[in-house]
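Request from the bench team (R.T.):
"We need a structural guess for the complex before ordering more zinc ion. Sequence and SMILES attached. Just send the tokens back."

Command: build protein-zinc ion structure.
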Amino acid sequence: MSTTRIANARPYGEDPTDLYVSGGVLVDAVDDPDETVDAEGLIALPGLVDLHTHLREPGGEEAETIATGSAAAALGGYTAVFAMPNTDPVQDSPVVVEHVWRRGREVGLVDVHPVGAVTVSLGGERLAEMGMMAASAAGVRMFSDDGRCVNDPLIMRRALEYARSLDVVVAQHAEDHRLTVGAQAHEGPVAARLGLTGWPATAEESIVARDAMLAAAAGARLHVCHLSTAGSVEVLRWARDTLLPGTGARVSAEVTPHHLLLTDTAAEDYDPVHKVNPPLRPEADTLALRRALADGLIDCVATDHAPHAVEAKDCEWSQARPGMLGLQTALPVVAATMVTTGLLDWRGVARVTSEVPAAIAGLSDQGRPLVVGEPANLVLVDPDARWTVRGADLASIADNTPYEGMELPVGVVHTMLRGRWTVQDGKVITHEV
Ligand SMILES: NC(=O)N[C@@H](CC(=O)O)C(=O)O
Ligand SMILES: [Zn+2]
Ligand SMILES: [Zn+2]
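Reply to R.T.: structure attached below.
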């Protein structure tokens, strides 16, 4: 069996050491390794895990495919992604989730775990075959109607009850659609000045509160997608401290890199690349989100990577689809907002980008410590690199990055999935036949 020596890497940014890989796992030092990779100055982290990716296949291949999205993920340092079900056809049956799962395996650059829809066709009215998707070859462990909220409280209650018996998690896109009819941007002075219909913070916060109560009553696991306001953080704090203890329920939450860095004033240029759901919020929210992520109140970072074709973005603001690319810029944005500010060290980064998301989704082979005996899913990053984002240079078919022209810190140099390089020197290593 061939052996790789990763020389002088700094696990979690700590003291340099050599890592050895053989048979897809980390092993003890070997005398004559077949391959040696010089990792002097590079930080080793467990491969990143994204609980919230839109890969667009099937049905949206003009914006992204499982192959191009997997390449973007590997280049971003990811070894596992959860593919949201708002595809066409919707991932609401075993046949569609198995298709996505198989295609992900064929491409082989990242573990693709399909998220199952909560309701048939994301229609919000009838529960999808959650049990069948969980029992399928894809082994679905997370369900969501993302893009839409499961707005009906009775449907949400039933979904949580099923989720509890199946031991799976329901990931909610928290938006009361009755409060966001026609909404275009965060409701506040900026949207008012720009003449854009407002998306009020309460549309999110009221659903987070309601769902926490429903989860507590059902003893179920709820995950809040792309949490975006300081008020939602306070609801979460109350749920953790007061509501949930003793119920057997668990409520986790993710924050996106763009909600950590960008603010509602980005809309001032009327460039729909800044249109996203939930909308970019005022600076006070971004600062509250950073603090909550550092404190562990927000559990993890998830990209909400949402590629859109040119036609869907190159139009007037109100017509444009919401969403932005995220996979290749996530770690740099987390570094810029959390590491350079002193809010997290690299151990903390590993926790919020890999260990905790893997645990939320119940993955036993991802987000593991970098020690002998563990699966060799890892990323080597250059903390001193700086690079300028160019949408055209990213691996996604779509180029809707909100960071165009921006200089970001930290470069992903190498990514390894189960002992095999998926990225070396910043280039994808394709294995597909
Ligand atoms: N985030 C977005 O603005 N868009 C997402 C859907 C979603 O995550 O709600 C998409 O699928 O494009
Ligand atoms: Zn969403
Ligand atoms: Zn999404």
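Two things stood out. The chain has twelve helices and 19 strands. The pocket of N-carbamoyl-L-aspartate (ligand 1) is lined by residues 54, 86, 146-147, 173, 276-277, 304, 306, 321-323 (CB under 6 Å).
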